[in-house]
Amino acid sequence: MTIPVQHRQRLLFIIAGAGLILLILDRVAFTPLTNLWRERALEITRLETNVAAGNGLLERADQLKRVWADMASRTLPKDPSLSENNLITAFDRCGRTSGIELGSIKPQWKRGTTDRYSVLECRVDGTGSYATLARFLFEVEKLPMALRLESVELTSRDDNGGKLSLGLVITGLRLTPMEGKQ
What pLDDT is stored for residue 116 in this prediction? Predict the structure, then answer.
């Protein structure tokens, strides 16, 4: 069976036209729609993850509120002088319990990175044996206050290392912005 040349040319033009139309449809419609569907699927997955995380937070809301209330209750009082007094008294108590000789306690107020809080930075110097200094650090860590140990410096005060000097920088959190200008 042979197809006349005119019919064959017409068939080839139809096939070429159909291929060209399919190529144009692929570039204009199919590929952009497929990419859009993939993006939407990724967005749906991301949103489902966010909803699941949000539902988890809602389920734990009461527990998180209790934990936050407990942590907030351990911060320093709003009154700056009372905060300083509480911190100095706590360090004095830790020093007496551990047997360390406290040299100086120097508190200094600093602004927080936001206006929602301020910090009381305190430099504590003392001397004692390795055991008394370790006990002092343990007592400070046990304090029920919102404190953070920023740095520790140990220096030998004699040739055999029996007497050591301790320098601490500790910050205490207060959930009140700092008053006045600094």
Answer: 86
